[in-house]
Write a structure and sequence with these properties.
Elements: H1 14-18, H2 48-60, H3 66-75, E1 79-83, E2 93-97, E3 101-106, H4 111-119, E4 125-128, E5 131-134, H5 135-142, H6 146-156, E6 162-168, H7 170-181, E7 190-195, H8 203-207, E8 214-218, E9 238-241, H9 249-258, H10 261-266, H11 271-284, H12 287-291, H13 295-308
Parallel strand pairs: 3-6, 6-7, 7-8, 8-9
Antiparallel strand pairs: 1-2, 2-3, 4-5
Helix pairs in contact: 2-13, 4-11, 5-7
Length: 310
């Protein structure tokens, strides 16, 4: 079957926006279409093909039906395992691999829950060996022993693959921390692909010393990428559009100014007020900045850009 463009969501109402909540197996999204024509590339350098695979895995990580998730991986020619899928709290992760690459993807969170997570009392940073990081994200990664199980699984995969860490939304934050902390016993190289990632660590220590081969994909006016605010928090990785092209610095500064209200919403000490203000801020946004955060929007645009250059 020939490659075809995927429709990019353009919701015009709250109901249409709500329909973009990711529910793999129930929301009609088809994973890994024509994957055999777009194989993974064994490299840590940025590739649009690998960005597509990483986003497909990040989207699939939202799945709550273990059988469905495993069927999608197998159909794409990947061996895999799911972690934490039955938990109500993060982390939830997928580890999938073939002879060339190991992909590690973390589940994100619903947009209507993200404000509370970002603004939680653990919004304040904690000092780690890697620098200052968002305490809530760090606790989420380490909860339930899931991350340790994921590390054990990666280490157990035989071969000399390249390892790609990936995630969307909260999953992007967890993937950022996971990539930074993982040390492969075989010394295999790793890269990071994030989609709609909030800021994770401080600029001086965490961001400045973050490993290379990190790619931060930005979907136009996605509001989530602008919280938590600087200077306490910064971004890691090379900022790229969904087409894989460098994001103009002027465009990023324009968006930072547009979403400066997020910083004001988080600038109070009281937890209840902080959560309420950020929820109200998200709710006050036009539909587009929220729709641009949807996994389906990222996945569709990345795919369309991939086949446009083939």
């Amino acid at each position: 079957m020939a490659d075809g463009l995927k429709p990019v969501p353009n919701p015009q109402s709250i109901a249409e926006l709500t329909a973009l909540v990711p529910e793999p197996g129930r929301d009609g999204y088809l994973f890994f279409e024509n994957a055999e024509h777009h194989p993974l590339e064994k490299t840590t350098a940025f590739r649009q093909t690998n960005a597509w695979w990483a986003m497909e895995l990040a989207y699939l990580a939202y799945g709550t039906d273990r059988q469905f998730v495993m069927e999608q991986l197998q159909a794409a020619g990947l061996s895999g395992e799911v972690f934490g899928i039955d938990r109500s709290e993060p982390p939830h992760a997928l580890v999938a691999h073939n002879a060339n690459l190991i992909l590690v993807a973390f589940r994100g969170t619903r947009l209507d829950q993200l404000a509370d997570i970002v603004a939680d009392l653990s919004f304040f940073p904690e000092l780690t060996p890697a620098g200052l990081v968002h305490c809530g994200f760090q606790k989420a990664l380490l909860a339930g022993g899931i991350w340790q199980s994921v590390q054990n699984r990666i280490a157990a995969v035989a071969g000399n693959q390249v390892i790609l860490f990936a995630g969307h939304s909260l999953g992007a934050a967890l993937a950022t921390l996971a990539r930074r902390s993982y040390s492969d016993p075989r010394g295999r190289p790793a890269a990071l692909y994030t989609f709609g990632s909030p800021r994770v660590g401080d600029e001086l220590l965490f961001c400045s010393r973050y490993p290379g081969d990190a790619y931060r994909i930005v979907n136009d006016s996605d509001v989530v990428m602008h919280v938590p605010p600087p200077p306490l928090y910064g971004h890691v990785g090379t900022p790229l559009g969904t087409d894989g092209q460098p994001l103009p610095g002027s465009r990023w500064l324009e968006l930072e100014h547009t979403f400066a209200g997020a910083a004001a919403a988080l600038g109070v000490f009281d937890l209840g007020k902080r959560q309420s203000r950020l929820r109200d801020y998200f709710a006050s946004q036009s539909i587009k900045p929220l729709a641009d955060h949807a996994p389906r929007s990222y996945a569709s645009k990345i795919w369309n850009a991939l086949i446009a250059v083939r």
